[in-house]
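Predict structure. Chain length: 211.
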Amino acid sequence: MSHGCHGAQFTGTRTLGVRFRHMDAITAINQRTSIRRFRADPVSRETIQRLLDCAVRAPNHKLTEPWRFTVLTGGARDRFAEIRAKHRLKRYSDPATPEALAGADKVRRECRETPVYIVAMSAVNPDEIIREEDYAATMMAIANLMIAAESLGFGTYLKSGGIMQDPELVSLAEVPDKFRIVGLLSLGYPAERDPPRRRKPAAELTRWVEG
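Prediction complete.
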């Protein structure tokens, strides 16, 4: 049962019954960074559902609610690992070389060491303007999920690229008709955490128009 995206405390999964105190949104945004390595600790279904409840609070024009999600864990995660490994081999002119096989093995291992993958999908509306609005809304939903995860001590990593169109992944994620994959989100407890990368100050990228 969903409990919504709210509350001052949250039941986590590191140990059954442990409660995590969340940080404020601004702190979570400023300290978030992409996590590439995760601990083996599982993430509970309740935790994932809470994060998805935060995702769907994103603004969306005329309440189209254009997002769909598929959660991959366990055997489904391992099947995704094989799909990623095969996709990585396409980068090489000769996929049988030691370099190519090592690259595929690295991707496979990293994928299997990630507790959860969330496949984010967006509606493909025939109207170009609505389609762009829906895509933007879905990406905001992903951002909501990532910030909520950060505030609770989880790590995330957002991937995209050509694999999102891979027929095997489309089948595994059970992508509905008239939807497309727009993001692949890793989720888990960070095994290590680097400081956030430097970004240009907003002041350098902002123009104020008055009067």
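Summary: DSSP finds six helices and six strands in the chain.
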